[in-house]
Amino acid sequence: MMRGERIWLRPMETSDVLESPVDDLDLGHYVGFRRPFSRAERERFAKHLVSSEAEQNFVICELGEERGFGGIGLRDVDRLNGSAEVTVFIYDPAKWGKGYGTDAMLVLLDFAFGELRLERIWLRVFDYNKRAVRSYEKAGFVKEALLRHDRWHRGTYGNTHLMAILRSEWEAQERPRGWER
Q1: With contact defined as beta carbons under 8 Å apart, do 85 and 123 qualify?
Q2: Radius of gyration over alpha carbons of the chain, in Å?
Q3: Can you give the pTM of this predicted structure?
């Protein structure tokens, strides 16, 4: 089992995506969705997340629960160079700011470095998503670059941070790994 202190990750199924509130205005703001999805678009998106060979996607659940409240995954897994981009979202606002995302990220890092033998995990985060930036820093990510005015959103240009964590930085973390819990 892939588990953290308060959460566990299970493989994503199509129904997880179809039943999630991907059209929520606040969620869309933080993850970058520009408009609502049609039913057909949601189905295509769900199919892609579940069946892609280059991705590893999981549902975030509280320990002892099957119902998810978010998703996390690796995309564009590059086995030759040992890198992947991580994506994460908590779609239940009641879970925001309570450490669930950080816990899920640590579990995914254990999987990426400990099982897939990757060397570098990276992500993009919009500069207005300060809560996410703090979470990623707690998990060991460092800011590597700032893409200035690279995103037009809600009538203004915004910046995106590129953040990453290397295997050696993960190895230096003194904490129980997901397989030790």
Answers
A1: yes
A2: 16
A3: 0.85
SS3 38: coil
What does the alpha-carbon distance between residue 106 and residue 103 come to, in Å, rounded to a whole number?
5
Nearest to 52 by CA among 17, 80, 19, 82: 17
Please give the C-alpha separations between residue 26 and each of 59, 92, 100, in angstroms, as whole numbers: 19, 10, 18
Residues sharing a CB contact under 8 Å with residue 172, sequence separation 6 or more, in sequence order:
none
> Any residues with CB less than 8 A from the CB of 119 and at least 6 apart, and which?
81, 82, 83, 166, 167
Class of domain 2-180: alpha beta
pLDDT tens for 73-131 read 999 999 999 999 999 989 888 998 999 999 999 999 999 999 999 999 999 999 989 99
- The residues spanned by each domain of the chain are 2-180
The 10 Å CB-count burial string (b at 16+, else e) for 38-61 is eeeebeeebeebbeeeebbbbbbb
In sequence order, the 6+-apart residues with CB closer than 8 A to the CB of 12 are 49, 50, 57, 58, 59, 71, 73
Partners of residue 177 on adjacent β-strands: none
